[in-house]
Inverse folding.
């Protein structure tokens, strides 16, 4: 299985990419560790996580094709 | 890219006038409240903002924008219609990056529903911006 | 007749777009709040409003409108400019009879200053209206 | 001396005119009586009085060329 992780705002800048695919991640908690391995600078930033366009606050299981986004505070308008 | 809610680059007067053209036909509306957000040429430490670059999570914008509309329509019974569009990409100082139009039966409902829509856009819409300065440096805004 | 504040007949989209054309150049503005008042095809006792006929005390409108502007500019320090225009004569249902545009450095000031301007126009501007119904009868409104 | 009296809104309708000139009126109080003589229906309506574009609440003396308006409640917007 594979999930897509999107980086927005300052996180796209510090990671140097808009997205990265991760294989064989069981849960959001698992994914966060994998992201920190690849992009250690991410821990210095404030962000929320969405799963398939829905902001989530708890650890959830992931399935193939899920889209996860790391979102710094919104700044529209 | 133009979707229902996002437009690439500044929101031109032509786009704004297109939205305004549509409102004439609704004879049950008594008031329309419009908000235009404009990029300001602020100065910080001797550097001047020349533009803002916006980015958006497009898929989630669609979901959240629909929710904002539904929230406003349920909270303001007199509201007849809500339209808004936000820029992505570069918008120069003096150009418009946010357009909101709310029509309602009565003026106070139109004004309050528009104000609430602007607040929800700021709070709920997954959009980010960085200010571009006249020395080509930039700074992410929250 | 067109003065700074009064226009004979409905306020057309062309007039509105002319006002909006002007705002682009002010790079110290961050938000513009617009209110459009529209004639509503209300029904009373089976009769439908087809138009409103407005009349105004033109000399006093000029005096009071200048006072409204001064009040808003002193109360909202962040407000940069205030424009408004009110119809006189016949305005049909679905047409616009009031246009207000307030520009400010920040959005809340723009919105609140615009709302206050609309309130002051209703309260202070010497304008009267009678609703014209589809059976050609009419009724003065207060 | 002559003053001009303007009638607005419903008062223009019930008096059948937009204005009338009155000669030799000393004060607002005096003028009100003269208006009631000519247009007795006016007493049935609510209105404020302005003198030269300024709303007034007291009796004032009038001079040649003054403009007085009888104004029902405003209804703009």
């Amino acid at each position: 299985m594979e999930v897509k992780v999107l980086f927005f705002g300052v996180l796209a800048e510090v990671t140097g990419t808009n997205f990265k695919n991760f294989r064989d991640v069981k849960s959001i908690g698992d994914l966060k560790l994998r992201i920190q391995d690849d992009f250690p600078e991410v821990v210095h930033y404030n962000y929320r996580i969405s799963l398939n366009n829905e902001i989530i606050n708890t650890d959830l299981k992931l399935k193939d094709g899920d889209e996860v986004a790391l979102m710094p505070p919104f700044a529209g308008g | 890219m133009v979707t229902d809610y996002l437009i690439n680059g500044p929101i031109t007067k032509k786009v704004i006038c297109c939205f305004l053209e549509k409102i004439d036909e609704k004879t049950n509306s008594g008031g329309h409240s419009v908000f235009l957000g404009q990029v300001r040429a602020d100065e910080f430490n001797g550097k001047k903002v020349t533009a803002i670059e916006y980015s958006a999570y497009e898929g989630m914008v669609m979901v959240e924008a629909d929710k904002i509309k539904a929230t406003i329509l349920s909270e303001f019974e007199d509201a007849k219609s809500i339209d808004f569009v936000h820029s992505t990409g570069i918008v120069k100082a003096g150009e418009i990056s946010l357009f909101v139009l709310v029509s309602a039966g009565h003026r106070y409902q139109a004004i309050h529903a528009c104000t609430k829509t602007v607040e929800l856009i700021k709070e709920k819409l997954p959009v980010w911006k960085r200010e571009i300065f006249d020395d080509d440096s930039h700074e992410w805004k929250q």
About this structure: The first strand of chain D starts at residue 2 and ends at 7. The beta strands of chain D are 2-7, 19-23, 48-51, 54-56, 67-71. The interface with chain C takes residues 6, 8-10, 12-13, 50, 53-54, 67, 69, 71-77 of chain D (CB under 8 Å). Chain D has one domain: 2-71.
